[in-house]
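Appendix C reproduces, verbatim, an entry submitted by the partner laboratory led by Prof. M.T., so that reviewers can inspect both the input and the predicted structure.
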Amino acid sequence: MEHFTDQALVLSTVDYGDADRLVTLFTLTRGKLTAFAANARKSKRRFAGALEPFTLLKVQLVERRGTTYRLYSVDIERGFYSIRDELPRIARALYCVELCRELVREQEPHEQLFYTAVSYLDLLEHQAAGPTSLIAFELSALAQAGLQPRFDACSLCGGALSERVLFDPEHGGAVCEACAERAHGQPVSPELIRALAQIQEGEKLPLSPESRRTARDLLNGFIAHHLGKRLKSVDFMRQVGVD
């Protein structure tokens, strides 16, 4: 059995039996993995307050049989406690870790995505996450997972986008007027497509509330199409008024 230490974000937990817990972790060096935390719901010394979603930990793990891990001990590095004071920030943080959980495969390292998620949680904790920061995080996470939507040119022919643009998740992004008959997307203003291209390149570009809502709908549809399901935290964000 191999013992190792790593940094990890708690992505989700599931109660198991009377006292145990299965914890899905996003580790820095080994990617996503699920660990068995024995007696986690009763042990105040080993796990108290640590196994909560979007907590950053230093974990000691024991690899048992192939892909089976046991969580031996944890130390909290960042609890991101101030996020937990406000429902909108909780909703965004839960979306952050759910998106990471669904984008990555088991034991497939994604070091840059790990740091991107921690950086976004840091912005939320310090109330420095601007109105378009969630969109920027989504686009960065999708790019790092190999699912980057295309906004700079037509996803079908690679040509320049016209003044009539569709966004088609199935074909990977924006579609020009000449290719519209081959696509099944929704019409989008070329101004929004250009703005998303700029945000994708790292620019901190403001968007109106209406444009943010449209952009979020586009990305929700794109993510749901490629994952084959809608993320649960999307509905929670809408319930608490996050666009």
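The chain has two domains: 2-81, 130-239. Additional entries are available on request from the coordinating office.
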